[in-house]
Amino acid sequence: MNWFHRRGWRDLIIGLPYLWLALFFLVPFLIVVAMSVATKTPTAPPFSFGGEHPWVNLETYQRLVSEPLYLRAFLISLMNAAGTTVFCLLLGYPMALGLTRVSRSARNILLMLVILPFWTSFLLRVYAWMGLMGKSSWFNQGLTDAWNWLVPADWAVKSLPMMHSNFAVILVMVYTYLPFMILPLYASLERLDPTLDEAALDLGSRPWQVFLDVTLPQSVPGIIAGGLLVFIPAAGELVIPTLVGDASTPMIGRVISDQFSQARDWPMASAVAVALLALMVGPTMLYSHYQARAEGSK
Amino acid sequence: MNRRPTFLITMLGFGFAFFYVPILSMVVYSFNASRLATVWGGFSTKWYVSLFSNKQVIEALTLSLKIALVSATLATILGTLAGIALVRFTKFRGRTLFSGLVTAPLIMPEVITGVSSLIFFLLLANWIGWPAQRGFTTITLAHITFSMVFVTTIVQARLLQSDRAIEEAAMDLGSRPWQVLWDITLPVISPAILSGWLLAFTISLDDVVITSFTTGPGSTTLPLLIWSKVKLGVTPDINALATLMVLVVGLGVVIAGIAMNRAEARRMADERLAYRAQG
User: Fold this and answer.
1) pLDDT of res. A63
2) pLDDT of residue A297
3) For a disulfide at B112, which of A273, B55, B150, B206, Cβ 3.0-4.6 Å?
4) Is residue B40 one of the residues assigned to a domain?
5) In terms of residue numbers, what domain contains B262?
6) Interface with A, mutate which of B116, B168, B204 (most A CBs under 10 A)
7) ipTM summary value
8) B221 and B254 inside one domain
9) Same domain, B160 and B272
10) Lowest mean pLDDT among B53-57, B209-213, B255-259
11) Residues B113-139: pLDDT tens digits?
12) 8 Å CB contact of B26 and A137
C-alpha cells in the first residue's frame, strides 16, 4: 500500500509544489485581501495600515458599493458574461449534438477542429474579429448591405457600428469561449444511450419531444459544466473588452487594471478584485458540486 | 430523432464557419498589397518581408520562446509532483489547503493573478531589494505558478486511471521507492507529462495579461508586442504574423494528433498480441 511513503521522498514530492504555490500564489493573494482594507497614501508603495485610519479601513468597500462606476462595471460584466454563456449554449448545444451524429472518423477530425483554435494565439483570434468588424471590411460591408436591403430607406447606414460595443464584446467572447461549451456538452451527450431515443420514437414521440423529454434532461450536467467554464472567465475578461469594447462602460477586469496602474489606488483595485472573487464563489461551488456528482456516477 | 439530422449538420457547418472564417480572412488579408488592412489592393508578400526584417519581432519571439521553455519545464516538474502527491498521498497535513491551491489558479481571473503577482514583487523589492528589476525572472516565476496547475490536472487524471497494482508488485519484488517512481510511475504517466508540458508551453507563449503585469522595461514578449500594436488598430504585418503562427501551430497540432493516434493504435495492437500469446 504505502509504496514510497518514506519521509524524505514524501516530503520532497509534497513539499516542493506546496511551498511554491504557497509562496507565489497564496501569499500574493493574501496580500491583496489585506490590501483591500489598507489606506491609500501618496507614498511609495502607495498604501499604509494604521495612521489616521484604524488598522482595518473599510472606506474602500463603502466607496465600492456607493459609487456608480463600480456597480455599473459589475452589472455590465455579469450581463456580458451571461449573454456570452447563453449564445455559447445556443450555438454549442446543436454542434455538440451534431458531433454525436456523424461517423466516428469524421467526429475525430471535427473534434480536432474544435480544439485547434485553442492552440492558436488568443490575442490573434480577437484580432481577427477586429479586422472583420472594422467599418470598411468585407464582413461589415456585407452585413451593412443586407441591413440596408431589409430596413426602410431612411434607416440605411454607411457601415454598422459593430466595434467598441457590448455586442462586439459578447460576439468575440462567444468566439473564444465556444470550445469550452462544446467539449463538456459533447462529453455528456456522447455517453447517452441511443436506444432510449429509439424506444421513445417507437412509442410514438415526435423527434422534438424526444429531444425535450429524453436528451435534454440527461445533458443537464454538461450544460452546467460548459456554462460555468464560459461564465467564470468571461466575467473577469480584460483583453477582449479592452480591444473591442466600449471604453465608457468598462467591465470589471478593466476597472481593476485601471485602478491599479492608472489611479495607483492599490486598495481599491484589491477591493474590486476581492468582490469579483466573492461573486465567483457561488458558481464555482456549483461547478465542483456537479463535477463531484458526475465523477461519482461513473 | 430522424436518421439524417439536417438541422444539426447545418449548425455544425455554421459553427465551423464561425470558427474558421475570421482566421481565413486574416490569412487572405496578410497577402494584401494595400496598407489599409481591410481593403483589398492586390496580392503581395511584402508584409512577410517586413516582418522578418523587423528586429523587434525577432527579439520578442526569442524572449517568448526562452520564457516558455524555462517555465514549461519547471511547471511540468512541479505540476507532476503535485499530481503524484494528490493521488498517491491521500492523507497528509494541509492536504485540503494544498488541493485548494492547485485548483484556485485555474479559476482565478487572470487580471487578479496579474495584479497580485505585481504587488507581491513590488513589495518584495521594497523589503528585501529583490527582484530589483522586473523582466525575464518575474515573468517566468508567474508563468510557472499559473501553468503548473494545468499540468497537475492532466497528470492527476492519468494517475487515477493507471493500475496501481503494478507499482505494488514492483515493491513486493524488492524495488526501492525511487526505482518504482523512475521505472514504473513516470513511464506510465509520460504521455500526460508530455501533454502537460505542451500545454504549459502554449499557455506561457500565449499569455498577455499576467505577463503585462509582471514585465519590466525592455522585456517585451511577442504577445505584449502584438498587444501594444493591436491596441492602436488593425495593421497588415500583424496579419502576416498571425498567419505564420496559425500555420506553425496548426501543423504542430495535426502532426501531434496523428502521432498520438498512431501510438495509441500500436499500443492497442501490442496489447491484443500479448493477450493472444497468453491464451
Assistant:
1) 93
2) 54
3) A273
4) no
5) 235-279
6) B116
7) 0.89
8) no
9) no
10) B255-259
11) 999 999 999 999 999 988 989 999 999
12) no
What residues of chain B lie within 8 A of the CB of A1, using their CB? 168
Residues of B in contact with A243 (CB under 8 A): 230-231
Which domains are seen in chain A, by residue range?
A: 59-296 (1.10.3720.10)
Average pLDDT over residues A185-212: 88
B154 lies in the same domain as B204? yes
User: Between A112, A139, A256, which is nearest B112 by CB?
Assistant: A256
Say whether both B206 and B82 belong to one domain: yes
Please indicate, yes or no, whether residues B64 and B163 belong to a single structural domain of this protein. yes
Interface with chain A: mutation pick from B21, B31, B38, B51, highest number of A CBs within 10 Å: B38
Residue B222 included in any domain: yes
For chain A, the straight-line distance linking the first and the last C-alpha, in angstroms and rounded, comes to: 24
Kindly indicate the confidence band of residue B164, based on its pLDDT and cuts at 50, 70 and 90: confident
pLDDT digits 0-9 by tens, A80-132? 999 999 999 999 999 999 999 898 888 888 998 898 887 788 999 999 999 89
On whether both B213 and B90 belong to a single domain, the answer is yes
Note whether B11 contacts A266, CB cutoff 8 Å.
Answer: no
CATH number at residue B224: 1.10.3720.10
Number of structural domains in chain B? 2
Say if residue B89 is in the same domain as residue B191. Answer: yes
Q: Considering only alpha carbons, which residue of chain B is nearest residue A163? A: B233
Same domain (yes/no): B221, B241: no
Asked whether residue B201 is assigned to any structural domain, the reply reads yes
Is 50 exceeded by the pLDDT of residue B14? yes
A residues 95-154 near B, CB within 8 Å? 95, 97-99, 101-102, 108, 110, 112-117, 119-132, 134, 136-139
Q: Is the pLDDT of residue A166 over 80?
A: yes
